[in-house]
Amino acid sequence: MHEDRAQHEPGVLNPELDAALRQHARRRLLGRGEQLYAFGSVPDALFCVEEGVLRLSVTSPEGRESVLSMVTQNQWFGEASLFSGEPRGNDAMAIVASAVLIVPAAAVHQLVDHRPDFLLQFLAMMGRRYRMILSRMDDTVLRPLPARLAREVLQAHGRELAAAGPHHPVTLRFSQEEMSQMLGASRQSINRLLKQWERGGAIEVAYRSLTVLDPEALRLLTERDEG
């Protein structure tokens, strides 16, 4: 299953490289709202979420925050700045109590020097991230909000299933404010859609969480809005 995930999901590496990196990692615990690193900081490590969820975001000079992505269990991140040598291009913050694995930059470079094929794995992972960003940009321009929101919920649902194993229903850590920032929509619009889907039996909404009851209903929503 891990091999299949590495072929499709941003942040997931093949088992051999994943295991090699973990041998050099130290573990850091983060409380909810605690920052892992800040925009402009030195790229001195590679990171992996062991437990919890981290938010990657940027903030405009006017103070408006835009969420780039949520990083979940067993996903690596921070590789772009690590290899380019440029300062971090975003903030990283835990949105729930989390545990993060930290691999020093020197250890990453040493692994790549001894195993050039590992570098290809990192390049493939960066390519998946780039494709995800382009897809999200296309969605913002071409697809209506219901389809975009349903897609984000389904993707989070799929990640949770892959990490925890197949079980139903799946409960996701979910913030309407963060989702509105990610999709470029108002919080009121997100709330209205969630309530509508809840009445239809597709999901159940609670404080900072969302339970997927009927994934197929959400999938049909995306297909209907595409058509």
From TrEMBL:
It comes from the Bacteria. SMART domains: cNMP (SM00100), HTH_CRP (SM00419). This is Transcriptional regulator. Transmembrane segments: none annotated. Residues 33-112 form the Cyclic nucleotide-binding domain. GO terms for molecular function: DNA binding; DNA-binding transcription factor activity. Residues 143-216 form the HTH crp-type domain. The keyword Lyase does not apply. One of its GO terms (cellular component) is cytosol. Signal peptide: none annotated.
